[in-house]
Amino acid sequence: MGLFDRKELNRLLHRHFRPLAAQNIHDMKWKKFFYRKLCEQDGLLVCRSPNCDVCADKAHCFGPETGNRLTWR
Ligand code: SF4
Questions:
Q1: Long-range CB pairs of 24-30, under 8 A, 24+ apart, other chains included
Q2: pLDDT digit string (tens) for 1-54?
Q3: pTM of the model
Q4: Which of 5, 13, 28, 49 would be a feasible disulfide site paired with 33, CB 3.0-4.6 Å?
Protein backbone atom coordinates (compact mmCIF):
# COMPACT_ATOMS: atom_id res chain seq x y z
CA MET A 1 0.00 0.00 0.00
CA GLY A 2 3.02 2.24 0.15
CA LEU A 3 2.37 3.43 3.68
CA PHE A 4 5.30 4.89 5.51
CA ASP A 5 5.00 2.96 8.77
CA ARG A 6 2.65 1.19 11.19
CA LYS A 7 1.39 4.48 12.60
CA GLU A 8 0.16 5.49 9.18
CA LEU A 9 -1.57 2.12 8.76
CA ASN A 10 -3.13 2.50 12.22
CA ARG A 11 -4.52 5.90 11.29
CA LEU A 12 -5.90 4.61 7.99
CA LEU A 13 -7.60 1.61 9.59
CA HIS A 14 -9.08 3.63 12.44
CA ARG A 15 -10.33 6.28 10.02
CA HIS A 16 -11.93 3.96 7.46
CA PHE A 17 -12.61 0.73 9.40
CA ARG A 18 -13.10 2.05 12.91
CA PRO A 19 -15.43 -0.69 14.30
CA LEU A 20 -13.05 -3.41 13.15
CA ALA A 21 -9.85 -1.57 14.07
CA ALA A 22 -11.21 -0.77 17.54
CA GLN A 23 -11.36 -4.50 18.26
CA ASN A 24 -7.57 -4.76 18.09
CA ILE A 25 -7.29 -3.70 21.72
CA HIS A 26 -4.01 -5.53 22.35
CA ASP A 27 -2.25 -3.97 19.36
CA MET A 28 -1.86 -7.24 17.51
CA LYS A 29 -0.03 -7.04 14.21
CA TRP A 30 -2.66 -6.18 11.65
CA LYS A 31 -2.24 -9.15 9.31
CA LYS A 32 -2.38 -11.55 12.25
CA PHE A 33 -5.37 -9.70 13.65
CA PHE A 34 -7.29 -9.99 10.37
CA TYR A 35 -6.57 -13.71 10.10
CA ARG A 36 -7.64 -14.18 13.70
CA LYS A 37 -10.91 -12.34 13.04
CA LEU A 38 -11.59 -14.40 9.92
CA CYS A 39 -10.97 -17.58 11.87
CA GLU A 40 -13.33 -16.46 14.63
CA GLN A 41 -15.96 -15.56 12.06
CA ASP A 42 -15.79 -18.93 10.30
CA GLY A 43 -15.44 -20.97 13.47
CA LEU A 44 -11.99 -22.15 12.44
CA LEU A 45 -8.99 -22.24 14.69
CA VAL A 46 -5.66 -22.19 12.91
CA CYS A 47 -3.76 -20.93 15.93
CA ARG A 48 -1.77 -23.30 18.08
CA SER A 49 -3.62 -22.13 21.13
CA PRO A 50 -7.13 -20.83 21.78
CA ASN A 51 -5.63 -18.14 24.00
CA CYS A 52 -2.93 -15.68 22.95
CA ASP A 53 -1.61 -15.34 26.51
CA VAL A 54 -0.40 -18.94 26.59
CA CYS A 55 0.54 -19.29 22.92
CA ALA A 56 4.10 -20.07 21.86
CA ASP A 57 3.64 -17.84 18.79
CA LYS A 58 2.73 -14.73 20.75
CA ALA A 59 5.94 -12.95 19.79
CA HIS A 60 5.01 -13.35 16.11
CA CYS A 61 1.57 -11.82 16.54
CA PHE A 62 2.35 -8.92 18.86
CA GLY A 63 5.14 -6.43 19.24
CA PRO A 64 6.83 -3.99 16.95
CA GLU A 65 6.78 -4.43 13.23
CA THR A 66 10.17 -3.82 11.77
CA GLY A 67 11.62 -4.05 8.35
CA ASN A 68 11.75 -1.99 5.25
CA ARG A 69 8.60 -0.72 3.70
CA LEU A 70 7.82 -1.77 0.19
CA THR A 71 8.45 0.80 -2.48
CA TRP A 72 6.88 0.92 -5.90
CA ARG A 73 9.06 1.53 -8.90
S1 SF4 B 1 -0.66 -15.41 19.69
FE2 SF4 B 1 -1.15 -17.52 19.14
S3 SF4 B 1 -3.34 -17.74 19.60
FE4 SF4 B 1 -2.89 -15.53 19.49
S5 SF4 B 1 -3.33 -14.97 17.36
FE6 SF4 B 1 -1.12 -15.44 17.51
S7 SF4 B 1 -1.00 -17.61 16.90
FE8 SF4 B 1 -3.14 -17.19 17.43
A1: 26/52, 26/62, 27/62, 28/52, 28/61, 28/62, 29/60, 29/61, 29/62, 29/63, 29/65, 30/6
A2: 778 888 899 999 999 999 999 999 989 999 989 988 888 888 777 777 878 889
A3: 0.73
A4: 28
- Ligand 1 centroid to residue 72 C-alpha, Å: 31
Residue 36 beta carbon below 6 angstroms from any ligand 1 atom: yes
Task: From the CA of 61, give the closest atom in ligand 1.
Answer: 6
Ligand 1 probe mutation, 48, 53, 54, 62, most atoms within 8 A of CB: 48
